[in-house]
Design a protein that fits this description.
Layout lengths: L2 H17 L3 E2 L8 E6 L3 E5 L6 E13 L2 H17 L10 E17 L2 E13 L1
């Protein structure tokens, strides 16, 4: 498993363990729910000996619910969890240096009976 994919798994497992929210990585569930999609990462460089890479990995999180307030609140809860984190999960293959909300919960629109909200979390990783 790539360090990027492992970092996403660590964050999603952390969210599920703390909040009970399961985030899908195969797209936004048809009947409502939460999903996470990796966006284009920013390369922050490498150590001089090229032994470690440092990247910021933006993670788009979407919430889909028939109740607008629930869609919004789920993302606020995730953002608050990430923002208040004093410790992040770690793994031998990747180090999570920091996580922050770069774009807070905002409406994307309404599709049929469902409201869709989005937010972006930046995860800084080293591997």
């Amino acid at each position: 498993m790539s360090p990027q994919k492992k970092a996403i798994k660590l964050i999603l497992d952390h969210i599920e363990n703390k909040l009970g929210y399961r985030l899908e990585t195969t797209g936004l569930p048809v009947g409502g729910g939460l999903s996470a999609e990796a966006q284009a990462a920013k390369d922050n460089g490498a150590t001089l000996d090229k032994q470690r890479q440092d990247r910021t990995l933006p993670l788009l999180i979407l919430s889909k619910n028939k109740i607008q307030g629930v869609a919004m609140e789920q993302l606020f809860n995730i953002g608050n969890l990430i923002s208040k984190a004093t410790e992040l999960p770690q793994d031998d293959s990747v180090q999570l240096l920091s996580a922050s909300v770069s774009t807070d919960a905002a409406p994307v629109g309404k599709v049929g009976d469902f409201w869709i909200y989005s937010m972006i979390v930046d995860i800084r990783i080293a591997f």
